[in-house]
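PT: before anyone asks, these are the final sequences, not the draft ones from last week. 387 residues across everything. Please model them as a single complex and drop the result in this thread when it's through.
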Amino acid sequence: MVELIETILLAVVVLFLAAGVFFMLAGAIGLLRLPDFYTRLHATGKCDTLGEVLIIFGLLLYHIYYYSPGAELSVQLVPVKLLFLICFIFFANPTATHAIMKAAYNTGVKPWKKGDRRM
Amino acid sequence: MGEKSLSAKSGKGFGIFVTFCAMFLFWLLLSGILDVLHVGAGIICSAIIAFVSHDLLVTQKWDKMLRKSGRFIIYIVWELWQILLANLDVAYRVLHPKMPIDPVVIEFDTSLRSDLAIVTLANSITLTPGTITINVDQERGRFQVHSIAQKPADALLVDKTMQEKVAKVFMEE
Amino acid sequence: MIEPEAMLTIFLATALLIVVTIILALYRATLGPEVYNRVAAVNVIGTKTIVLLVIIGYIFERPLFFDISLLYALLNFIGTLAFAKYLERGEVWSS
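LR: through. Structure below.
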């Protein structure tokens, strides 16, 4: 019974890691493939945020199960730190994307329209 | 202006106390070492931060903030589902051989005015399918949004589900 | 019971794939046609580095790396904001 639970937990952790890596790869490919600056930010601003959060959440589950019982306090508090990191990424990544985008728009970088040349 | 007078009425000491408790809890969670030196340094640092910047954290009455945070958590759950949809959408557009994109820049007005509501809506727009906030005019509540295709732009211009949800969370109809 | 070695392999594979995405972003950072492409790519590399630091913390089993990744997240965010402000206005701080 315990082994079954452990196997399921491991599968969930690996699933989170794989989904995160998939989204991050999609974001990186988008960064290379999409035609202009604004559309590239669509790929990075969304895919990177979710990919990173998924990977950190998978590691958090792993940590709660494998390290917490009987460890010292500073090790037991690591999931809290990772939770802070997740909240911070959710707050900071869209804000940074928005800041770069606003700077580019206000200094006159033209958005790409369908049929234009790649930039 | 209304928020500031509320804060003054409920007292400066209360704001300092709440900020101090939050900062000290944060310190304990991050350090995890419970000897005299570390806890003492934590008390001193949290006291300084609470004294200098207590008006940043507590701007409204406590019960109002608590009710808002309850509705905010429900909103976050819906938002997480939208983020997952957004990522699948972007991954589909990027990995599709023909890249079905047709970018447009749109503008729309909202009735939101407070800082937190506008930040929430702007970040939600950036994280949900196909749209990124470019510019926000706080005085008129006007948003400029870059959309990767026409369909996600219509979700903001015609349906307006997200604006209604955020307005319901912060009660600014 | 799952052996720790199996998890180590999975973490190493994840870290390697993240490094691959960083290399892809590095292409945009070096050859990106405008300065904005470069800033965006540098921001992306920074946020990927946060995750990489967390995974390294698990590979070497040092909890110290989580503090570093928290700090790096803060620094990367502030750096990107400063860059964006500077490019928009030509100065970082205007009175």
